[in-house]
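Lecture 7 notes: from sequence to structure.

We start with a single chain of 166 residues. Read the sequence below before looking at the structure.
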Amino acid sequence: MRLAPTLSLALLLAARAFADPVEVHLSAEVDASPEHVLGVLTNFEAWGDVFVSVETLRAERPDPLHARVEQKARRAGHTLAYTLVATIDPSARRVELALDPTRSHDLEELRTSWRIHGLPSGGSRIDLHVVTESGLPVPGFIERAVAEGTARTSLDELVVALHPGI
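Now the structure, written as tokens:
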């Protein structure tokens, strides 16, 4: 009788080990200019004020187009520690973030791309693309739900930061 639960757990762990990372694509339109949106996104030192899940933060800027952001963030009821390397492309209005390969992390994979497009109205469309994998032995549907919820929360928090009082 004990073999069935053990076998089920082993199959779950084996399936999880070969699961693909979760990809999430989201967009939002805001009345803020692309330059303002990019300015808020690249003010890494203030991310704790923008993204409420960020508990602690330390940002280093070796130059104006690159940063390293160490943070602890609350995700799905857990605090995760990780360090992101940021690359800023002002002409494309894009911010690329990836886990720093020289550091250890509480996530298996995290790559994020923020892209800001100007609208004829003077506002912006913000496109968010996230690729993530927790590395935890959880079913794929839970991994996807957490990834989608986390990405949606991040985008919503940015929108609120761009329009205080909403």
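The domain at 21-162 is CATH 3.30.530.20 (Alpha-D-Glucose-1,6-Bisphosphate; Chain A, domain 4). Keep this in mind for problem set 3.
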